[in-house]
């Protein structure tokens, strides 16, 4: 969505605006972001429809009023995530350390000699997790990212995510062997497992009881490369005064002896649990159920 907004404003103008805004105190910037989110809720009809559909199907036990309230709150967090991106890209390391509250063992990857994977779901503060892995521990980081059609904005994303010179990023169109080479050479893999990239290397795995095209690669990699797997959740503070990144205990039994499909269902179940704890901050505007099993009607109409 940020790419679409920049496309309308002009990438250079939008990036300049983000740079100016990052100089503001974060609570003020968060208030502006919430205001932007309310505007986006009113005008971004397609994304609002996607979010509503996702919430309706994933939270069927909620009444309509509660579902609509969740979508409105989600858009306020979405607006914050767009405007606060500049803080993550340009704020000083000292300011970022003040704003990011770390919970758990952030240095586990640094102490682990073997191959390592962070599993990070798509909460709206996802970018903060990437910053934390580079600011608060010394192991090299490798990850995939979604290449942008606008080259100016794409360059800004790459530069922002690599600003601490402690990692590499690869597009989904790159040869996966490049990322595997990084892991074999000692990089920790920052893995984002919960997006719909179609059925290549994926299978339909229940997510909130709905078949969702889900990559099997995390389970396959963890098993074949004997990786230590640590789940991570990044959240915005509701008061607009910073972020919390939770480095949870490593999974001692994942993927375990389960087949890849069963292990991936366990992964999805954990993500569901984390979403239930902070539902407004999950990326509901993503078409998570775009790919459908053969014969089923389109999920988003």
Task: Walk me through what this model shows.
- This protein has 301 residues and is α/β, with parallel strands linked by helices.
- It has one domain (2-281).
- Helices cover 48% and strands 16% of the residues.
- The chain is built from 13 helices and nine strands.
- The strands form two sheets. Strands 1-9-8-2-5-3-4 form a seven-stranded mixed β-sheet, sandwiched between helices.
- A hairpin with a 6-residue loop joins strand 8 and strand 9.
- The two termini are 20 Å apart.
Please specify the SSE layout and strand pairing.
Elements: H1 2-9, H2 11-21, H3 26-43, H4 45-58, H5 64-83, H6 85-90, H7 93-99, E1 100-104, H8 108-111, E2 116-119, H9 126-135, E3 141-145, H10 151-161, E4 167-171, H11 176-184, E5 188-191, E6 202-207, E7 210-215, H12 217-224, E8 228-236, E9 243-247, H13 260-277
Parallel strand pairs: 1-9, 2-5, 2-8, 3-4, 3-5
Antiparallel strand pairs: 6-7, 8-9
């Amino acid at each position: 969505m940020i790419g679409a907004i920049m496309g309308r404003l002009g990438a250079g103008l939008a990036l300049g605006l983000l740079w100016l805004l990052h100089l503001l105190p974060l609570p003020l910037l968060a208030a502006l972001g919430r205001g932007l989110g309310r505007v986006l809720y009113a005008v971004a009809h397609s994304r609002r429809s996607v979010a509503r559909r996702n919430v309706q199907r994933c939270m069927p036990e909620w009444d309509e009023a509660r579902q609509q309230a969740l979508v409105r709150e989600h858009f306020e967090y979405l607006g914050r995530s767009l405007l606060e991106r500049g803080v993550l890209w340009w704020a000083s390391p000292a300011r970022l350390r003040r704003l990011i509250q770390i919970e758990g063992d952030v240095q586990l990857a640094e102490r682990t000699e073997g191959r390592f994977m962070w599993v990070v779901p798509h909460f709206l503060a996802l970018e903060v997790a990437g910053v934390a892995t580079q600011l608060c521990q010394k192991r090299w980081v490798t990850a995939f990212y979604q290449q942008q059609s606008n080259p100016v904005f794409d360059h800004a994303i790459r530069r922002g995510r690599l600003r601490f010179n402690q990692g590499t990023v690869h597009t989904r169109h790159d040869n996966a062997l490049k990322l595997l080479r990084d892991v074999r050479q000692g990089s920790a893999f920052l893995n984002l497992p919960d997006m719909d990239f179609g059925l290549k290397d994926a299978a339909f795995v229940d997510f909130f009881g709905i078949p969702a095209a889900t990559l099997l690669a995390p389970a396959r990699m963890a098993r074949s490369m004997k990786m230590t797997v640590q789940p991570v959740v990044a959240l915005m503070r509701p008061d607009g005064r910073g972020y919390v990144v939770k480095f949870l205990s490593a999974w001692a039994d994942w993927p375990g002896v389960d087949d890849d499909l069963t292990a991936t269902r366990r992964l999805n179940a954990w993500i569901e649990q984390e979403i239930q704890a902070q539902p407004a901050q999950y990326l509901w505007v993503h078409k998570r159920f775009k790919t459908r099993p053969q014969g089923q009607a389109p999920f988003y109409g």
